[in-house]
Amino acid sequence: MSxxxxxxxxxxxxGGGAARRAERTAVSVETAKYIERNVPNYEVxxxxxxxxxxxxxxxxxxxxxxxxxxxPEALARWKEAGADIDGERxxxxxxxxRKLCATAPSEFTQHARNPERNVVIGGKNLVLAPVYGPPxxxxxxxxxxxxxxxxxxxxxxxxxxxxxxxxxxxxxCEPTDVPVNKRHLDMLxxxxxxxxxxxxxxxxxxxxxxxxxxxxxILFGKExxxxxxxxxxxxxxxxxxxxxxxxxxxxxxxxxxxxxxIISPFIVGGAMAPVSVAGTLTQVLAEVMAGxxxxxxxxxxxxxxxxxxxxxxxMNSGAPTFGTPEASHITYGAGQLARRMGxxxxxxxxxxxxxxxxxxxAYETANSLQMGLLAGVxxxxxxxxxxxxxxxxxxxxxxxxxxxxxxLHHFAKGVDISENAQxxxxxxxxxxxxxxLGCAHTQANFKSAFWRSDLFDYKPFETWAEEGERxxxxxxxxxxxxxxxxxxxxxxxPEIEAQLRAYVAEKKASMPDAFT
Amino acid sequence: MSxxxxxxxxxxxxGGGAARRAERTAVSVETAKYIERNVPNYEVxxxxxxxxxxxxxxxxxxxxxxxxxxxPEALARWKEAGADIDGERxxxxxxxxRKLCATAPSEFTQHARNPERNVVIGGKNLVLAPVYGPPxxxxxxxxxxxxxxxxxxxxxxxxxxxxxxxxxxxxxCEPTDVPVNKRHLDMLxxxxxxxxxxxxxxxxxxxxxxxxxxxxxILFGKExxxxxxxxxxxxxxxxxxxxxxxxxxxxxxxxxxxxxxIISPFIVGGAMAPVSVAGTLTQVLAEVMAGxxxxxxxxxxxxxxxxxxxxxxxMNSGAPTFGTPEASHITYGAGQLARRMGxxxxxxxxxxxxxxxxxxxAYETANSLQMGLLAGVxxxxxxxxxxxxxxxxxxxxxxxxxxxxxxLHHFAKGVDISENAQxxxxxxxxxxxxxxLGCAHTQANFKSAFWRSDLFDYKPFETWAEEGERxxxxxxxxxxxxxxxxxxxxxxxPEIEAQLRAYVAEKKASMPDAFT
Lengths: 516, 516
Description:
homodimer
């Protein structure tokens, strides 16, 4: 069995526009290693501010408390751990949650079926995963429409072929043509078959989380799954301060099986949290501490991630807004809080509110991506493809964002200060009024010196005009088609694939379709 | 004489699409104070890296030296200061340049004719000025074309009306329909009459710099100009390591008259400087030290700014590239070097290589703007309107970028940690499972809580679709028209205006047209 990356080289050069187009849009299947930051984090909160927020979060947990809804076993676990239970309300004495969180690992490895694609989540690392959850898709040709399983498979293929993406993600779009109670099976199968990158499990029912574990046992082997983390799944907190039984049920399944969960408040500021940055950070910290502590009650040492999905709100329309300065404050601040807890941190993404992959989308997205890098994010969900506040997965924006992720990789390398990089010989060789293009230092270093986009237009104006004055979306349309046309499935043991397909078929046959 | 800002309120509400459109695009003439950062700078270079670069820059000045071209007086000044002169080559002994730079002020006030628009350049401040230099303009209706004086006046008006712009800039586009030897007169007149914000002087000939000073003496009074800085002008260094007599001649005029200059290497990495970040920073520092030191030889204490215009290069096409990680490294690093010299710092801008105000333009621009804020830039030229590598001033991109500059203002405020911002009462009032929209804290704080764009689309999908599925450029086209339609000239003493017009007419009549 060979899971080595398939490199499809550039096509042969030839005359004519078609050949030039082919050459320009050629893609090679190559995946960069996850980002290991060699640059500092940006910290917006002072020590004093951090201490105030941490003290307030303890007050929230001890005096206001959190609700664990329709989950008597959770209440019993909390009681045994020393919390005060009042109906479904759990009040956690000062210091208890933080103490329980201490058994969670500060970093962990998520294994992929191709070991070269394993990712280490935590520390100075940044792992990039695609958009999660949109019920709609959009492309230039077909416009906006409900997502289908065919769309889902295309996004898995694009993620597999995207050099700067380390992770296949989870619900890259909602396949609305498959019954709700069965679609997780098709989604998992697609991630397992069409990609060899790590992926996420199902969280919409505890039984679906269990299906995810079962299918992973087929793919990786039963023993391997019990000893290793092979899924990182998204457990949203029902902010403010509410942990519903569906999400907690999924968390319980994953934690018991040593699989990772992102414990993530889902907050539109001013609606699910206070309208202020400090207030929102307080609530986020309280919620994450309660959720992470609960995961450790299930299984001490279970891998978890400090999550923060936070957007601001437009008080004129009530719409969530993205790429805003307040969202940046919260993202930077939550990173500081996560590091003080010694937990991996999930935040940021290719966030935007725009309906189209236009300038608004790109301003908002670039603000969000850059902040994610500098905030010390360890796992970035939604790092490409997000459109219209997350309602839409855009094919064009997927490849546009995926290309931009290269800037994060290159920035994170930091500044080389070696003798070669100091370039004193070059400055002397060229001298006042000279030109560096031909000098020995440039010749030796130019290939790796500067990041370049594989998508953007760098042509002279006249060439660009002759070729139809295409904007970024038009270039992205070409790139999406080219990638899907040249996609090749990574090899997988046919026996394993057959077992996975049998599992899915059997499960589907065992229950009637349900669309809720 | 009243120069108070004219506030044009929102239009009355009324039925019908036209009224709604009018309301949506209404603009009020209001200018935010320059940014005073209450957030830390981002520093990418270690102390060790900074020391290596500083030592190497001294070596460059002492051993390689810089050329002062066709400027015997400059060579004489340098000789007297202790430099070693060999033809036009000036070798500056270690420590001498830095010592000379010490008399330059760490911050200075640039006065505007409306004192409310004065800006303080240096320290924790950030002053934003529009694009400088494009020979072409573009808008959706007229496409790309040579810029004219009519275009120039429109950009001055847009800058005057843009809330987040503090500065009117200089050559917002090249008015190619006016002879080269006369256009500086029309440009200065436009800044002085159509705006009350601070502006830049002419640098294309020493005599034109002198015209700038003369016109300022009419506008501000002769004595005021000698005692105060009323212009900040752009002196580019002819990188590598060359100071031409035209730019130095203009610098000499400005420094003698206590007017500010930005001493700015103009570098496409790999062409005018080494292909490495550390090498480029070394050359930038050497060039700025030589230029600033020279300004202080002209007049100790003359206000100057440490400039760095640096882009990367696409080695496939030779095109300069923008918003790239290497440009960020250099911008962050140069900020550190400038602060260690105690000089105000100019860098960043709305940089992009795209031909259109599309997604590429916005990704690249957002990367550049955010980096400018976090790099500690004090004066940001090109902060709006830049397109196609600076060849084009775009009307739509001007208002798109100008809107985005609001994110810099709001981010720079930092995180409020007051009792109100902590919002503990709100968290208690709302409790688990509640909603913050109606709570007392939200009602009291929502108006100022979150930045909102005045341009972007935040509407529900259905409304947006009904209104024609407009992208950001289309919204910007409407905004440009609306702003120019509602522009009102800031009041100016008619006597002063008449004197300025007479000066321009007389100067123009005194020489034949020249187009070089």
